[in-house]
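debug: dumping io for the single-chain case to check the tokenizer round-trip. Nothing else runs in this session.
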Amino acid sequence: MTIVYVFLVISIVLCLMLIGVRLQVAKARRSGIYPQKGEATMEDVKNLISSGNHLLALRAYREIHGVSLKQAKKEIERLKQV
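debug: decoded output
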């Protein structure tokens, strides 16, 4: 029974985190910081990095290239050094 409760709590926390991320992206899109779905370019990624929005840059990079989180993080770190 305890395992069921732990699983339930973990599931709720993960759902809340996902909702938070989606709200953050929606807010960034409304303010013009983040491009609309399917319209992201590498120029957008570079602008997000230079403005300090590394998580949004990571998300945009993954949307453009369809790569894993690990690969995207590596590339974003490389772009930050340039």
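debug: round-trip ok. Residues 2-81 form one domain.
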